[in-house]
Amino acid sequence: MLVHLRERVVQGREVVRNGVKITVQPAKGHAAERAAMRAAAWAFGRPGVLRTGQRLASRTRRLHPRKLPGPGRAWSDTRDLPKVPAESFRDWWQRTDGGQRGSK
């Protein structure tokens, strides 16, 4: 239910509120979220871009912040950001023949 309601807020659509059908406009302030989702969709749709991004992230993992800057700071004040693994899943999969060989 929460995901469904969140979609309504972000995308906007017709809803029934107090027995009256109204059109909810996309919430303001979600432009950055929409841009991030569009960028993710673009990268996930291009395997070469995704592969390069994964390798770049693993090679620069020591430079990654522990807390998010700007508006993300409040969120990361109470949560730890996940650590970037030394090896991407794609590289591990290729090295172990899809997990058939034990990790070396």
Explain what the structure shows:
The protein has five helices and two strands. With 104 residues, the chain is mainly alpha-helical. A two-stranded antiparallel sheet has the order 1-2. The model has no long low-confidence stretch (mean pLDDT 80).
Topology:
Layout: H1 2-11, E1 13-17, E2 20-24, H2 31-44, H3 47-59, H4 73-76, H5 89-95
Antiparallel strand pairs: 1-2
What are the main properties of this structure?
104 residues, mainly alpha, 5 helices, 46% helix
Q: What is the tally of helical segments?
A: 5
Q: Please list the strands of the largest sheet in the order they lie side by side.
A: 1-2
Question: Beta-sheet strand percentage?
Answer: 5-15%
Element-by-element helix/strand order: HEEHHHH
The percentage helix is 40-55%
Instruction: Give Rg in angstroms.
Output: 20 Å
Distance between the termini: 44 Å
Overall shape: elongated
A few lines on this structure:
With 104 residues, the protein is mostly helical. It has helices at residues 2-11, 31-44, 47-59, 73-76, 89-95; strands at residues 13-17, 20-24.
